[in-house]
């Protein structure tokens, strides 16, 4: 049993130990303040259970007693259980109660500290908690006491004497909290700030004075979670604010593919200030009929060209080779072509350098490049094309038109996931509730699957996004055929190029 701090919101702030445990978990019990993106780090078959104290899109509310019982029950079943809690589990959370319950039940446990919102949120808002010669002491307190505690459990006079005061869970009692700090001797003109959902794309900061902060926050309409910082250190925000100045700050980007396929793209988006939202709408399965695949592998050394139009095709093809106790040597003298750099990189992982890789283009361009590379001598050449079961035929038709003998062999098929699949549920609901700013598509199958999952009105939901991107012309045409506009197709079919060009255009007037 593991109690893991998930950090304050930015998924990049999860510790390495926390990420390792998520990957091993059989069960993940997660709080309402946990960034749902982190759930994608769990194994595909892991059970994900919402354990928040408020009703959410992700599930019904749970009482602390229910959470305690569930932890013990799952752990006693012999499962690896991760209790994923926002921030740091031992700072203004209820991890101490949960640990006590586990200890009493004689369930072995480990506590994995997390990056606390106490330090991370002010840092992302450009507010240092200490500054030489300005602030040497910091005090943390909660503005929301548990039921049954004395009303004056917090020593507000002592708190007011700290150079910097950080208040948790103080939004609903903010007027009372600021009044008590004033009564404790703090000056009304002391700089103060309230930060909503710090370290996420939704971050919003209200700066005022101690005397006016409650009224300013109320006028701004902030809702929980909010962290309050009081002290002279707030004056440094103008010079030190960095996160909110990033080119994609505030943009929530829907990525309809699995995290392992888009990890670098998501990391670049995060570096640019955006919040990636994964919704892997498809999964890969073996082809319906393996007959042609078996024949092709049996006579693999008879082909003069092998053409790959996706990284998935590369991986699945070589998995099939290995299952037949063969490796790259089985390709003999065949030349290899790839649709682009990403597919070529997947091929390189198998120890093979592609002979033909167009720097920009689609399947038709690949076919044209093969003809050119062969000096036009492609007639009757045997060409193997391992691909998806329902792949597009432009490259096949172009090669056949040049006289090539093309054998199309399905090595996988793409199927749409179920609407209640835990990996896709959060992203779908975010899109349905208008909480997605950018939709980024990397394959026609993703377009079709997303619209299938959304049902009637799906195209309108996608069109409501501020920006819609397609990795290349084939995906762009698919979007347009379904009545969805395309705002950006990158100059090169590369995810990193897409992220950078999105940053250049997103906030352009």
Can you characterise this structure?
By secondary structure, this protein is of the alpha/beta class. It folds into 4 domains: 2-115, Tetrapyrrole methylase, N-terminal domain (Cobalt-precorrin-4 Transmethylase, domain 1, 3-Layer(aba) Sandwich), CATH 3.40.1010; 119-245, Tetrapyrrole methylase, C-terminal domain (Methyltransferase, Cobalt-precorrin-4 Transmethylase, Domain 2, 2-Layer Sandwich); 252-281 and 417-505, 3-Layer(aba) Sandwich (Rossmann fold), CATH 3.40.50; 285-414, Rossmann fold, CATH 3.40.50.10090. Helices cover 34% and strands 18% of the residues. The protein is built from 19 helices and 19 strands. It has helices at residues 16-24, 64-76, 95-104, 117-124, 156-161, 174-183, 213-220, 237-240, 263-271, 291-298, 311-323, 341-348, 363-373, 394-401, 422-432, 444-454, 458-463, 473-481, 495-505, and strands at 2-5, 27-30, 47-50, 81-85, 110-112, 138-142, 164-168, 191-196, 204-209, 226-230, 252-255, 275-278, 282-285, 305-308, 335-338, 382-388, 405-416, 438-441, 467-470. Strands 3-2-4-1-5 form a 5-stranded parallel sheet, sandwiched between helices. Strands 6-7-10-8-9 form a 5-stranded mixed sheet, with helices on both faces. Strand 6, helix 5 and strand 7 (164-168) form a beta-alpha-beta unit. The longest helix is centred in the first third of the chain and has 13 residues, at 64-76.
């Amino acid at each position: 049993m593991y109690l893991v701090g998930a950090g304050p919101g930015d998924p990049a702030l999860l510790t390495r130990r926390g990420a390792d445990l998520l990957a091993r978990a059989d069960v993940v019990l997660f709080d309402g303040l946990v960034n749902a993106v982190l759930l994608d780090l769990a194994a595909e078959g892991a059970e994900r259970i919402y354990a928040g104290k408020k009703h959410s899109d992700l599930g019904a509310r749970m009482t602390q007693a229910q959470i305690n019982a569930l932890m013990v029950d799952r752990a006693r079943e012999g499962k690896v259980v991760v209790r994923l809690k926002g921030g740091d589990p031992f700072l203004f959370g209820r991890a101490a109660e949960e640990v006590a319950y586990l200890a009493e039940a004689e369930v072995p446990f480990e506590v994995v500290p997390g990056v606390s919102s106490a330090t991370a949120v002010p840092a992302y808002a450009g507010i240092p908690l200490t500054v030489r010669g300005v602030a040497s002491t910091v005090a943390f307190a909660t503005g929301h006491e548990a039921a049954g505690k004395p009303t004056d459990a917090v020593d507000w006079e002592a708190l007011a004497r700290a150079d910097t005061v950080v208040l948790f869970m103080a939004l609903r009692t903010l007027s009372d909290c600021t009044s008590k700090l004033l009564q404790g001797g703090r000056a009304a003109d002391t700089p103060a700030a309230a930060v909503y959902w710090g370290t996420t794309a939704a971050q919003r900061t209200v700066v005022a004075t101690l005397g006016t902060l409650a009224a300013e926050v109320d006028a701004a309409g902030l809702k929980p979670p909010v962290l309050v910082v009081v002290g002279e250190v707030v004056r440094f925000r103008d010079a030190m604010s960095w996160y909110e100045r990033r080119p994609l700050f505030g943009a929530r980007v829907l990525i309809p593919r699995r995290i392992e396929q888009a990890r670098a793209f998501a990391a670049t988006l995060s570096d640019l200030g955006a919040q990636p939202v994964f919704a892997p709408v498809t999964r890969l399965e073996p082809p319906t009929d393996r007959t042609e695949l078996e024949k092709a592998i049996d006579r693999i050394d008879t082909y003069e060209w092998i053409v790959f139009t996706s990284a998935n095709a590369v991986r699945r093809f070589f998995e099939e080779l290995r299952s037949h106790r063969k490796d790259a040597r089985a390709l003999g003298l065949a030349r290899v072509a790839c649709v682009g750099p990403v597919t070529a990189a997947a091929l390189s992982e198998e120890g093979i350098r592609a002979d033909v890789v167009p720097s920009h283009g689609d399947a038709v361009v690949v076919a044209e490049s093969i003809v050119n590379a062969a000096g036009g001598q492609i007639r009757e050449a045997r060409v193997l094309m391992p691909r998806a079961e329902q792949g597009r035929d432009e490259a096949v038709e172009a090669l056949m038109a040049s006289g090539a003998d093309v054998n199309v062999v399905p090595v996988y098929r793409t199927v749409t996931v179920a609407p209640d699949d835990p990996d896709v549920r959060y992203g779908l609901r975010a899109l349905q509730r208008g909480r997605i700013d950018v939709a980024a598509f990397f394959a026609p199958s993703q377009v079709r699957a997303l619209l299938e999952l959304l049902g009637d009105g799906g195209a309108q939901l996608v069109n409501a996004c501020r920006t819609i991107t397609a990795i290349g012309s084939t995906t762009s045409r698919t979007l347009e055929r379904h009545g969805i506009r395309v705002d950006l197709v990158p100059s090169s079919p590369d995810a990193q190029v897409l992220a950078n060009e999105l940053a250049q255009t997103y906030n352009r007037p």
